[in-house]
Amino acid sequence: MNNSSDNLKQRGGRGEDAAVEYLISIGWRILNRNYRCAAGEIDIVATDPDGVLCFVEVKARSGVTHGTGLGSITARKQQKLLAAANTYLGAVWAVENPLIEPNCRFDVIVIALSDGSPSRVILHKGAFTA
Description:
Layout: H1 3-25, E1 29-37, E2 40-47, E3 53-61, H2 75-96, E4 104-114, E5 117-128
Parallel strand pairs: 3-4
Antiparallel strand pairs: 1-2, 2-3, 4-5
């Protein structure tokens, strides 16, 4: 792996750590991080204080050269997240909570980085619908 992809991975990891810290600080319960399946990956699966099951995509940005974090969630990316969420619901949620049909939402957290460190967290609830 080259330095560029190492840096991207490190930046993404710092962004996800900051997102988890933020969500916990506002009363969310983290269920899974980096849930992977054949359909794709979900950065964070959590429940908000109202009990809504949230599938959260995290985007760490040090500028807008490559677009905004929210703007980077294309229709194709949304379809992949939806497919991964459906897999999660069938493979994990249904096993752990067989009698509970969850209210679900897709959120995006944009982490603004300053000198490589998280400086601002922006939560976009209901960033897109299934």
